[in-house]
Amino acid sequence: ETGVTQSPTHLIKTRGQQVTLRCSSQSGHNTVSWYQQALGQGPQFIFQYYREEENGRGNFPPRFSGLQFPNYSSELNVNALELDDSALYLCASSLGQGAFTGELFFGEGSRLTVL
Amino acid sequence: DAKTTQPTSMDCAEGRAANLPCNHSTISGNEYVYWYRQIHSQGPQYIIHGLKNNETNEMASLIITEDRKSSTLILPHATLRDTAVYYCIVTYGNKLVFGAGTILRVKS
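ok -> structure tokens follow
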């Protein structure tokens, strides 16, 4: 039990649609990171938010965007879905870099299937 | 890009120590070594991390060589529930770059 919850757990979309995935972080954690994990691969860093501002981005196009809210919740939005976006999307919360204790707290993920 | 090299898979007998190696020859002075694991269909779980010194917690021990170019994660008494993918990550701060990891199979 990490204290990080994600919704929905599973969803199916079609190509071209838009999706919003949600995450509720541990209370007090001011940093949230999102990862994409394709089948059989390790998680890939999408981006990170610190105090509601984007604070680092991996090699993902602009159609991947996010929001972080003051109540420790956050969203990952993906526009113009492609078949290759089918993956497990993981949210992880932590303290900010200067206070990082070494542990990211991951949720169980949202499994997205794009048809 | 991931900065670590790990074996693709390893087997370990239940009750024995599991020793998982990791090479990180390009590690820089302020980068930490982190270990996470991922049990099937779950989010990754933190195990341990270290900078220079060996570290031990209730889950595992981390042995880092003096030149910091490699490390070993030790699970002292592996159980069937330790079957998972183990990721060795080298980074500074809280942006983790995962590689493919090592699939550890603990067998009875």
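The radius of gyration of chain B is 13 Å.
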